[in-house]
Design a protein that fits this description.
Layout (H helix, E strand, L loop, with lengths): L6 E6 L7 H15 L3 E6 L20 H9 L3 E9 L2 E2 L1 H8 L3 H4 L3 E7 L6 H13 L3 E2 L4 E3 L2 H4 E2 L2 E2 L2 H16 L10 H4 L8
Parallel strand pairs: 1-2, 1-3, 3-5, 5-6, 5-7
Antiparallel strand pairs: 3-4, 8-9
């Protein structure tokens, strides 16, 4: 399919070399590309992102400005993270902390979470809360991958229904890129730290 001008950026919150999160995001981005979008995977292993310090500007924080620029240039942002201690991983938190309204407001966001055990519902909920606090519109369809070590075989999905959930997320990332956003959330009204990052 031809490029329709929609640019989808996925942020991978896993630093593991054999990351199931990265594998799933790559599959979602492949589906987005088949739907006519252009894609970019932000593999956080490749960026220097120190722990967020509000007293240090983004320009003095390693690759933070570069990461923010990639996110800002997206029409749709896919957030993908393993679930750690009932929430999403700290590399994702650090990347999000360096972003604000300039990167997320009125953008479409898709969510994907991976767990070694049962469904990573709370990780999805926490990422959704962050996206809404930044006035992003979150795609209702989300991809949850439980029991990740059994979900893949040599980098391929074992369960076609699970793969369909992930590919649907990629297609929705393109389909809903230009949706009219919701009204501002009540969380965003109090999110003073997200102004002018």
């Amino acid at each position: 399919m031809t490029d329709n001008g929609v640019h989808v950026v996925a942020i991978c919150g896993s630093l593991r070399d054999g990351s199931h999160t990265r594998t799933a995001l790559e599959r979602a981005l492949s589906a987005a590309k088949q739907a006519g979008g252009s894609t970019d995977l932000l593999d956080l292993r490749k960026y220097e992102l120190p722990t967020f310090d509000p007293d240090r500007g983004r320009e003095n924080a390693g690759d933070a400005e570069l990461v923010a620029t990639h996110v800002r240039d997206a029409d749709t942002i896919l957030l993908g993270s393993p679930m750690y201690h009932g929430s999403y991983a700290s590399p994702m938190k650090t990347a999000l902390d360096y972003c604000g309204f300039d990167e997320f407001e009125d953008k479409t966001v898709g969510l994907l979470a991976v767990a070694g055990g049962s469904f990573p519902v709370t990780a999805l909920e926490h990422m959704r809360s962050v996206a809404r606090a930044l006035n992003a519109w979150v795609i209702p369809h989300e991809a949850a991958i439980p029991n990740a070590s059994a979900a893949f075989d040599d980098g391929e999905f074992v369960d076609p229904k699970l793969e369909m959930r992930v590919t649907t997320l990629g297609r929705r990332a393109v389909q809903y890129a230009a949706i009219e956003p919701d009204p501002d959330s009540f969380e965003s009204d109090q999110n003073v730290g997200a102004q002018g990052k």
